[in-house]
């Protein structure tokens, strides 16, 4: 990853990658209310790192200290002069009440990622009021023992990924979320190359789910990163064999 691409880690996540937790709730003059906090998911963080840094361009190490887990997250950066540097950030999280180990590690990874800007924009959200509804997706309970259901609030435009402007039949601009890359010779070639790596068992098995995702969504940037890495590994093996 080029040094100037670090800023891509700070871009907003899709709404479906955001988790919400009830921070406080109550009942005032017979009306239920709830305030919620927004978080990014650990899976979304890992996908963001894969997409921006490349599957081999980041790594993390976990260390347990008492009841807490510390995560040191490192990303590989290439500077303009060609030098390569690993930049690391460390943060931690306590073990959770449910799935203590998994929850603690997941929390530590997310906190370390925030130090690189992943999801930091969510701290700017103010007055996140839950939408109270009898058909809500989540449940809450007031101190008085009243159960209720709620849905997350709608995120403001600035907290969502950038969208493309397209024109409808009347010529007016509408907003649409970017979809997969259209078919092109480059996409077709990259998909075939990555499929060949998978079929020939050349691709690390840990990368296969991500590779299949790139193939399905026709993500040319992701496919090219895999191709470039594999070509570099093949060239390295040929050089070592020749020597």
What does this structure look like?
Helices cover 31% and strands 29% of the residues. It has helices at residues 42-53, 100-114, 185-199, 208-217, 220-242; strands at residues 18-28, 31-40, 58-65, 68-78, 84-94, 131-132, 138-141, 147-151, 164-167, 173-176. A 3-stranded antiparallel sheet has the order 3-4-5. A 3-stranded antiparallel sheet has the order 6-8-7, with no helix packed on it. A two-stranded antiparallel ribbon has the order 1-2. Strand 9 (164-167) and strand 10 (173-176) form a beta hairpin. The two termini are 29 Å apart.
Q: What is the secondary structure topology, with strand pairs?
A:
Blueprint: E1 18-28, E2 31-40, H1 42-53, E3 58-65, E4 68-78, E5 84-94, H2 100-114, E6 131-132, E7 138-141, E8 147-151, E9 164-167, E10 173-176, H3 185-199, H4 208-217, H5 220-242
Shape: elongated
* Low-confidence runs: 164-182
Average pLDDT = 82
Number of helices: 5
Class derived from helix and strand content: alpha+beta
- Fraction in beta strands: 25-35%
Gap from first CA to last CA: 29 Å
Order of helices and strands: EEHEEEHEEEEEHHH
Return Rg in Å: 22 Å
Helix content: 25-40%
State the total count of DSSP E strands: 10
Major pleated sheet: 3 strands, antiparallel
The strands making up the biggest β-sheet line up spatially as 3-4-5
Task: Offer a quick outline of the entry.
By secondary structure, the protein is α+β, with helices and mostly antiparallel strands. It has helices spanning 42-53, 100-114, 185-199, 208-217, 220-242; strands at 18-28, 31-40, 58-65, 68-78, 84-94, 131-132, 138-141, 147-151, 164-167, 173-176. Helix 3 runs antiparallel to helix 4 (208-217).
């Amino acid at each position: 990853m080029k040094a100037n691409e670090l800023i891509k880690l700070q871009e907003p996540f899709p709404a479906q990658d955001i988790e919400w937790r009830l921070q406080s709730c109550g009942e005032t003059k017979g009306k239920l209310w709830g305030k919620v906090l927004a978080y990014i998911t650990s899976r979304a963080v890992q996908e963001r790192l894969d997409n921006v840094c490349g599957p081999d361009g980041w790594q993390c190490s976990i260390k347990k200290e008492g009841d807490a887990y510390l995560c040191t997250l490192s990303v590989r950066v290439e500077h303009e002069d060609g030098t390569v540097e690993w930049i690391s950030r460390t943060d931690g999280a306590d073990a959770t009440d449910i799935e203590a180990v998994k929850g603690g590690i997941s929390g530590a990874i997310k906190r370390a990622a925030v130090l690189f800007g992943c999801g930091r924009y969510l701290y700017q959200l103010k007055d996140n009021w839950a939408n109270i509804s009898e058909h809500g997706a989540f449940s809450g309970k007031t101190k008085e023992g009243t159960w209720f259901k709620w849905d997350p609030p709608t995120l403001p435009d600035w907290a969502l990924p950038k969208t493309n402007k397209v024109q409808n039949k009347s010529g007016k601009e509408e907003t649409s979320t970017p979809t997969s890359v259209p078919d092109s010779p480059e996409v077709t070639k990259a998909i075939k190359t990555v499929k060949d790596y998978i079929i020939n068992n050349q691709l690390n098995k840990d990368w296969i789910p991500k590779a299949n995702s790139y193939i399905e969504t026709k993500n040319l940037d992701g496919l090219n990163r895999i191709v470039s890495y594999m070509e570099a590994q093949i060239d390295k093996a040929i050089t070592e064999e020749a020597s």
